[in-house]
Amino acid sequence: MNLIEETRNRLGAVGVWLPVGMFVPTPDEERRAIQRLEELGYRTVWGGEGPGNRELFAYSAITLAATERVVVGTGIANMWSRPAYTAQSGGRTLAQAFPGRFVLGVGIGHSHQAAKTGSDYRPLEQTRDYLAAMTAAEKEFPSPVPFPRVLAAVGPKMLELARELADGAHPFAQPFEHTPYSREILGEDKLLVPTHSVLLGDREQARASVTRDIELMKRYDVPHYFKGWKRLGYTDADIDGVSDRLVDGLTAWGDEERIAGRIKELVDAGADTVLVNPVGDDLPSIVDQLERLAPALAEVTR
Questions:
Q1: Does the global pTM surpass 0.90?
Q2: What is the dihedral of CA 115, 234, 272, 124, to 10 degrees?
Q3: Please, are residues 134 and 166 in contact by the beta-carbon 8 Å criterion?
Q4: Helix (H, G, I), strand (E, B), or coil: what is residue 85?
Q5: Secondary structure class of 196 (helix, strand, coil)
Q6: I need a labelling partner for 220 at 20 to 30 A (CA). Which of 80, 113, 140, 245 fits?
């Protein structure tokens, strides 16, 4: 069995994406939350990296040490936060310490993050160079325990780069239609690990959440999410008016069975693992939703 097949088996069909650092819980609260997710049967937990967040490799080490079986993924380790050599070394260290339990997700982030480093923003070229430098570092110091590397990818060129230089793709903030679109570009022999928002509630609650997300995207000028939506047929009217179609594309809402059914549709459409991202205002409310969803999501298989 190759590394990608082994990773698919370890991740399972459904995992969790947590907004690391957004709610500023104590480390003990975070450890207890992730231990609870492991007890509930979730097999993989991922977290992102952004302004003010905890350093993601250190956070991953804390999470891995606090659990026994959970596979931890970085979704994503921002390329502006560390050199490629350091990212590869960090992945190698965690993979050796916790064999089979670490997935390294990397991504170029956004133009405002590049600006903070004094750099320009040429995402495709810079991502290619970064991945090539990681590969060179791996050749110089091979990891005793291989670990998969996935790339944050939304558009077709970045998905092609994920197919060429990584073990797969980790799309974020994209509607349902993006999963079959990504699978077609990646092919069958690469990992596809999208996130998808979930909400135990009705469409109007989901619309309010999508509206907040759109406002944040506009505030921080991250247009490639919108470009991804438009590539799939959504219009400015859908985005500005937060249409039913857009809400339903971005959020699995309803009761436990309805949400699990929607996640199953994503798996059937080509996702290897869907990382559910519960809408919530704090870590306890997110964990509460995941506890309610756990029995239904456990029935979702490939």
A1: yes
A2: -30
A3: no
A4: helix
A5: strand
A6: 245
> Which H helix or E strand runs over 95?
helix 84-97
Distance separating alpha carbons of residues 110 and 79, to the nearest angstrom: 10
Structure token pair of residue 102 = 């670490």
Residues near 155 by beta carbon (within 8 Å), at least 6 away in sequence:
224, 227, 228, 231
- In sequence order, what are the residues at sequence separation of 6 or more whose Cβ sits closer than 8 angstroms to the Cβ of residue 212? none
List of residues 6+ apart from 219 with CB closer than 8 A? none
What is the pLDDT tens value at each position of the chain, 302 positions in all? Answer: 899 999 999 999 999 999 865 665 677 888 899 999 999 999 999 998 865 567 899 989 999 999 999 999 999 999 999 999 999 999 999 999 999 999 999 999 999 889 989 999 999 999 999 999 999 999 999 999 999 999 999 999 999 999 999 999 999 999 999 999 999 999 999 999 999 999 999 999 999 999 999 999 999 888 899 999 999 999 999 999 999 999 999 999 999 999 999 999 999 999 999 999 999 888 889 999 999 999 999 999 99
What is d(CA 69, CA 57) in angstroms, rounded to the nearest whole number?
A: 18
- Helix axis angle, 84-97 to 56-66, nearest 10°: 10
